[in-house]
Design a protein that fits this description.
By secondary structure, the chain is of the alpha/beta class. It has a single domain, classed as 3-Layer(aba) Sandwich (Rossmann fold). The chain has six helices and seven strands. It has a five-stranded parallel beta sheet with strand order 2-5-1-6-7, with helices on both faces. α1 crosses α6. It starts with 6 loop residues before the first strand and ends with a helix. GO terms for molecular function: kinase activity. It comes from Rhodnius prolixus. Keywords: Kinase, Transferase. This is Putative nicotinamide riboside kinase rhodnius neglectus.
Length: about 180
Amino acid sequence: MDQTSNWIVIGLAGATNSGKTTLARRLMDQFPNAVHMKQDNYFLSDDDPRQIKVENLGHNNWEKLTALDMDRMMEDIYAVLRSPCTSPRLLILDGFLILNEPRIVSLCHAKFYLDVSYDECRRRRLGRSYDPPDVPGYFEQVVWPESREAKQTSIARNPDTVILNGEMEIDNLVSQIVDVIEKN
């Protein structure tokens, strides 16, 4: 029997600071045998030649798939899916561009996009520190426009994506996702 058939794979996408990781952690509470993988763990180094510079800001564009080592992430996903699994288990893939990577989308039984308003996204982003830190204007010129483009592309390619309001109470979001998971 194909071991991957015992896995239920969900993709949690959304703009930066939309609540993806918080939601994934809460899902881990509901499904203690689940595996959680974060796309943020696959960023290339700042000096990697594959990085694309935003020339007017003198800063790398961290908001594109080209800023991520998606081949390595796919290897890690396949390693998880090949691991011994005798009963259904949940694999939670969490990332701002998870639904923009066709190889990941093809594995997902359910896809979710957490949407937040500009003001809420900016407020949450300002409350965090990044390495390297955001330069002035990066959110307005890069983060927000790239997140809107990524959302539009992912929804167009994946019309079965469930769009969730990332500003809703977390318990409500968890129950919506659990309902979908339990149907799979």
